[in-house]
Automatic annotation (TrEMBL):
GO MF entry, a single one: ATP hydrolysis activity
Gene3D superfamilies per record: P-loop containing nucleotide triphosphate hydrolases (3.40.50.300)
Name the record gives this protein: Elongation factor 3
Keywords (A to Z) from UniProt: ATP-binding, Elongation factor, Nucleotide-binding, Protein biosynthesis, Repeat
Pfam families linked: ABC_tran
Keyword DNA damage set for record: no
Annotated transmembrane regions: none
Length: 526
């Protein structure tokens, strides 16, 4: 029977810090969702489950065929492999063509293996995946969403027993997400789904949340998980607040008792000096007061210790991580009204309507459309002088392009050096403050870019493009990809108050709705 069981899994970083310890995970349900903040170790845990990475402690039992989808940029982006070759049908297609041209060689018939419909099935598949390219086109010509759908389809076609999916909806448009949801619901095996996509997580039977406290399971889909998680978090926070209030009361009582004791001692000293009471009586009263006060102090100190112990116990049950914020530069906005213009743009006029727009100083534009319609191509054209000439695009200001694959980042540099190298006028202290805002504090700023998770890379890239010394037109190609839900909301809030212009590509309508968009440019099918 297919099984994937992880027992007492631990992973230690090169710094000596434990990313997670003693994790237990078993796929007992059909679809298991795995959530957690960026950098919590979800992708590392997935690589341990697949065997690509060895744990520092614990073991993984695997039974059955396992197929994996990775969130990392695909090697197909830079390969010369054709779509047919990737689908594994190129040899059959060559044999079919040879037979159609009159070949009678037995070798060609053996290669075809009576699969006379191979070409037609592949063409129908391309239409189903909304890929308007030839089977002989290179995979590197596909858009991010088209490539994701092709890779996911290939996984399902392998008929594995267990699917491990790491952020599979990154780059997918609304139709692509629904296609994936339908495939997940129809899949007969077990699925482990790492995602920040709320719609996708609602398909899960159980949600496992990875945090600094370990891995905790919640029955039900995302909404039920969120409800239970928030109730637990609020209850814990209330208990901590109550203990803090109790601590202040005890400290105030200690202070009040000390003041009263001082007052009584002063009164006794005055009575002693006046001689109104016998000395032996005064000494007895003083001794009695000291004993009573000593007992009261001991009792109150014990109360404080018990309170502190309870407080530390409860705080140890809180997740690590301070509140994060994206601080986008509030640079002076370019006063020219016509920053850029796009006239009759289309990557393929037989399939997509042309679009035109004028970009002005205060514009926050949402560029929308299905996978393959040319959104990324348009942003690349805006960012490239050569592209502007070819596409008939005019741009009067500097642009900064944040693409889907973190091309701005140098994997062999630290986060701090990467940010300062990109923004040379940024002082080290300011760079550290910005990085701290998105969760990188103290020595973590020296972490190499290559060691960052997808969400951490995106946070760094957003800081880089938004803190240029000039006031550029920001071209943001799905900047919400890889980000956890809390980080998405904070980035959207930062964009809504950003004074400069930007063009945003995103398929997350919640994110778009919170980002302060005031114009929409949609590339529609003919």
């Amino acid at each position: 029977m297919p099984a994937l069981i992880a027992s007492q899994i631990s992973h230690q970083l090169e710094t000596g810090e434990w990313l997670f310890r003693s994790i237990n995970l078993s796929l007992n349900h059909r679809i298991t969702g795995l959530t957690g903040k960026n950098g919590s170790g979800k992708s590392v845990l997935l690589s341990i489950l697949t065997g690509d990475c060895l744990p520092d402690a614990g073991n993984v039992e695997r039974q059955g065929r396992i197929a994996t989808y990775s969130q990392l940029p695909s090697e197909l982006l830079v390969s010369d492999m054709t779509i047919a070759q990737y689908l594994g049908i190129d040899d059959k297609r060559q044999a079919l063509r040879a037979i159609e041209q009159g070949s009678t060689r037995q070798e060609d018939f053996d290669r075809l293996s009576d699969d006379w419909e191979v070409e037609q099935r592949a063409i129908e598949l391309m239409a189903q995946l909304s890929i308007a390219l030839s089977l002989d086109d290179f995979c590197c010509h596909l858009s991010g969403g088209q490539l994701a759908k092709l890779q996911l389809y290939h996984l399902f076609q392998q008929s594995p027993d267990i699917l491990l999916l790491d952020e599979p909806t990154n780059h997918l448009d609304t139709q692509g997400k629904q296609w994936l949801i339908n495939k997940l619901k129809a899949f007969p095996g077990k699925i482990l789904l790492v995602s920040h996509d709320r719609a996708l997580l609602r398909c899960a039977d159980v949600i496992c949340h990875l945090s600094s406290l370990g891995l905790k399971s919640y029955r039900g889909g995302y909404d039920e998980f969120q409800r239970q998680y928030n109730v637990e978090k609020q209850a814990l926070s209330s208990k901590i607040d109550n203990l803090k209030s109790e601590k202040k009361k005890i400290e105030r009582q200690i202070q009040l008792n000390a003041e009263k004791a001082q007052q009584r001692e002063a009164m006794g000293n005055r009575a002693r000096r006046s001689g109104s009471q016998p000395k032996i009586l005064m000494d007895a009263m003083k001794d009695s007061a000291q004993v009573t006060r000593s007992a009261a102090i001991t009792n109150q100190n014990n109360q404080l210790k018990r309170n502190q112990h309870k407080l530390e116990t409860l705080k140890s049950r809180q997740e690590d991580g301070k509140e994060q914020s994206f601080y986008l530069a509030h640079t002076q906005v370019d006063k020219r009204h016509n920053l850029a213009s796009i006239a009759d743009f289309s990557v393929d006029k037989s399939r997509w309507q042309t679009v035109s727009i004028r970009v002005e100083t205060q514009d926050r534009i949402h560029l929308s459309g299905n996978n393959g319609c040319g959104k990324s191509t348009l942003l690349k054209a805006l960012s490239s002088p050569a592209g502007r000439l070819v596409q008939g695009i005019k741009c009067n200001v500097k642009t900064v392009y944040l693409d889907q694959h973190f091309s701005l980042l140098c994997p062999n540099m630290s986060m701090l050096d990467t940010l300062r190298n990109s923004c040379p006028k940024l002082a080290e202290s300011d760079a550290r403050t910005l990085l701290a805002g998105v969760g990188f504090r103290r020595d973590s700023v020296y972490k190499m870019v290559s060691a960052l998770s997808g969400g951490e890379k995106m946070k760094l890239a957003v800081l880089m493009v938004s803190h240029q010394s000039c006031s550029p037109l920001l071209l943001l190609d799905e900047p919400d990809n890889h980000l956890d839900i809390d980080s998405k909301q904070r980035l959207a809030k930062a964009l809504s108050t950003y004074p400069g212009p930007f063009i945003l590509v995103s398929h997350d309508q919640d994110f778009v709705g919170e980002a302060g968009i005031n114009k929409t440019l949609e590339i529609k099918a003919v």
